[in-house]
Design a protein that fits this description.
Elements (H helix, E strand, L loop, with lengths): L6 H15 L12 E4 L2 E21 L9 E2 L17 E7 L4 E4 L6 E3 L8 E3 L3 E3 L53 E3 L8 E3 L8 E3 L8 E19 L8 H10 L3 E5 L11 H7 L9 E11 L2 E4 L6 E8 L2 E8 L1 H24 L1
Parallel strand pairs: 3-4
Antiparallel strand pairs: 1-15, 2-12, 2-14, 4-12, 5-12, 6-11, 7-10, 8-9, 13-14, 15-16, 16-17
Length: 354
């Protein structure tokens, strides 16, 4: 018998299970039983980790930093510790005497538009080549020159109905689009030779890139202190109970819990293998300012009795008392596997013969 609390009650429950379900004998010799400790273990370690960084900050425009705490040495600045492990906080500080407010050379945050050079408009041609005739087939008699060069009207393909030429006066000879002139008034500027600048919206000025239109900048050294949460799960060391037993234990078992702060001792009834898995993870990590290990564990006993060699019993505490679960023994599983394999081979031979 080990020093595991409650193990005697679990073994008694296994013995009662054997007697009530029947065995090869009328009595059960528990003194020869093989007893192994197979507890179920869950643990997550929650930490608050502190980081301290400095960086140069730039703000375009006015910036009121009077409400922020100042510091001389960031490492020496004291902050409020977290109320509990996992709490997150952040402090934005200003290095003393680092604030600089400067007016930009642009004066008011605007500079001349680089596209229109401050004019607010772009140059545009007063006319364009006629899109219908391309300027080359403007008139079938004068070719847009105003001087008739052909004795008869030269037919133009794809231009549709022809109209009177404004250049030479030939009837039904000119392109309908330009009426013999070869060019049309520019639709963008309506012949004014000027269009609004789209970049500055005709204002002639745009926001200064360097100050983003603010006309001034504020620079300072910012100290940032962050408390961030980290969580780590500790895997259960082997050996494990079967999956079915672990499922039942998770659903109905009376788990023992513990919340371990730095300096707390591990539960005295936690198995050595679990203590060995947990101890290395309870060391302080860089920047750690708070830690708590949330531990759940359930005593599970594995029992093999010579009087019942085909079953393995697992027992764990429930709210109403110990629960006993029987699963096939490894020997029984191996026997079943051999039978299944033999049947498969036999079927294969029969199919081959047929």
């Amino acid at each position: 018998m080990s020093d595991i609390p409650g193990e005697r009650a679990l073994l008694n429950a296994v013995e009662r299970r054997l007697l009530t379900r029947g065995t090869s004998t009328q009595t059960v010799n528990m003194t020869t039983a093989e007893v192994r400790w197979r507890p179920v273990f869950e643990c997550r370690i929650v930490r608050t980790v502190e980081s301290r960084t400095e960086q140069e900050r730039v703000h375009h425009g006015k910036k009121d930093l009077s409400g922020r705490p100042t510091y001389r040495k960031l490492d020496a600045y004291t902050v409020t510790p977290p109320a509990k492990a996992g709490d997150e906080q952040q402090w934005e500080l200003v290095l003393r005497d680092s604030v600089r407010q400067e007016h930009c050379s642009c004066g008011n945050g605007e500079v001349a538009c680089d596209r229109c050079q401050g004019r607010g408009a772009l140059t545009c041609p007063a006319s364009r080549i006629c899109p219908a005739c391309g300027g080359s087939e403007s008139c079938g008699r004068c070719d847009g020159s105003g001087v008739r060069r052909h004795d008869r009207i030269v037919a133009a393909t794809g231009l549709g109905e022809r109209v009177t030429c404004l250049k030479c006066g030939a009837l039904e000879a000119a392109c309908r689009g330009c009426r013999g002139r070869g060019r049309v008034v520019c639709p963008d500027c309506a012949g004014t030779e000027s269009v609004p600048c789209p970049r500055c919206d005709s204002q002639g000025t745009i926001a200064h890139t360097a100050c983003r239109g603010a006309g001034r900048t504020v620079t300072w050294t910012e100290g940032l202190i962050r408390h961030t949460r980290s969580e780590e799960r500790v895997p259960q060391p082997p050996p494990h109970p079967p999956l079915f037993v672990r499922y039942l234990a998770k659903e109905t078992g009376s788990w023992r819990t513990a919340a371990l702060a730095p300096g707390d001792k591990l539960p005295h009834d936690l198995p050595a293998a679990h203590q060995s898995a947990l101890k290395p993870r309870l060391t302080q990590v860089p920047g750690e300012v708070a830690r708590c290990a949330h531990l759940r564990y359930l005593p599970v006993v594995r029992v093999m009795v010579p009087d019942d060699p085909h079953r393995v019993f697992y027992a764990f505490p429930e709210q109403g008392g110990p629960k006993v679960v029987a699963v096939p023994s490894p020997r029984r599983v191996a026997q079943a596997a051999i039978v299944i394999l033999g049947a498969a081979v036999l079927l294969r031979v029969l199919f081959a013969v047929l």
